[in-house]
Amino acid sequence: MNFKSNTKIVVGFALAVGVLLLTAAASFWSIRGLSVQTTRVEHSYQVMQEVETITAVLKDAQAGTRGYLLTGDTVYLRPYSMASGQLPAALERVIALTVDNAVQQVRLDSLRRLVEQEFRILRPLTEVTSTRSQAQMQTLLDTDRQTLRQVRLLYARIRRDELNLLAERSAAQAVFAKATPIVVLVSAVLAVVIVVWLVMKIVRELDDNRRLQAELAAVNTEVAHRIAQIRALAEQVVQGDYTVQIPDTATDNLGGLATSLNRMTQTLDASFSALEKRNRELDQFAYVASHDLKAPLRGVTTIVKWIENELAAELSPQLRTYLDQMKGRLSRLEDLINGLLAYARVGRTTQTREAVDVHQLLNEVAELVVPPEFTLRIDPAMPRFETDRLGLQQVFINLLSNAVKYHHRGTGQLEVSSRDLHDFYEFRVQDDGPGIAPEYHQKIFLLFQTLRDRHTAESTGIGLSIVQKIINEQQGTIRVESAVGQGAAFIFTWPK
Q1: 151 close to 58: Cβ distance less than 8 angstroms
Q2: How far is 106 from 175, CA to CA, in rounded Å?
Q3: Which of 258, 264, 281, 355: disulfide with 246, CB 3.0–4.6 Å?
């Protein structure tokens, strides 16, 4: 299992701390054991010293008393006096030292009774006014010798047991004395090894991290360069260059994306080349159609005029009506051909951007399509900006001419206003005509769709389609707000 660098370092630290704690515990145990055994050895020596002191003091007291009996000199009673003051305290000390040893406690208890018995024997012998007989004195001395012999035997047993304990404790002390340096040395060596291993591990991990960072930086640089190539290709495609290719042959995801983008640009180049060819063919067809279709139309129109001029006296009213209808149909057919040509050419002609004063542009359009019987009100806050003048002019011409053509009265009110929408201007062309029912709001923008009888108003049904196509080419939108009997308002947006 592969761990991250931080995890490895943390685990290493935890392991090192754990081992160091174990070695510290082992060292503490060893030193503690040595200290305990040393204390016990000292304790055994102290017990033996105290018991030996009691025996010696008691022996000195006996010897002093015998000296006093032989010489009568009270100087010999000094050891007895000192023993009577020292021995009770010494006995208490040794009993306290052996409180953990029940066997020794029993022996010391016997020793205390013997000491007390010895003092009971010696005390009469030290009295100056003693009236005891020679036989009584001899009995006391014999009892004293026996008591002292028992004290020596008891001392020997106590000393033997303490010597055994001392031997055991000295052996244990020797073991700990030998083990403690070894444990401390091993702990120190192990601690050094662990620290060195941990330092080497950290250094190795840092080296690996630096190498990995360098590799990542190189990969990031390469990826950034390849992404920049892809972005450059996208920008060139947006600008219309479909021949661009990315020189990236790698087999990773970016390489696959570059290959896909290269195929896409090749496909786009081929598709747009074919589209341009078809557009040229369509332009040629439109030109030929306009030329070849208009010529027969003009011929038929001329023949109708000849009939009206040369056979004027022979034409009946009904025949004149037929001829008028024929001229209207011919005129509508010519308008239809011109409209189709205009619709086909929208977006395929070069757009020239120039400064446009919309207020002035509307005045020029009004002179062309708004008759004197209609009143046109133009919002004085019309903008001035750089745009495709011909396209905007065509939109206003079609909308205003439609408003006049489909008005249900001979006179009317027209109004054009504008509004600033940050990246766009919004223009509103309002009339007070018959209005349009809501169910026809989308239909009127379709080709060849007209809402009025063609006998009432000659219409090709192409004007609003042209308007919508021009506005779409500008990335704008158009909609209608209208209801029957309430006029119509065409609202469109035009980019700044």
Answers
A1: yes
A2: 31
A3: 258
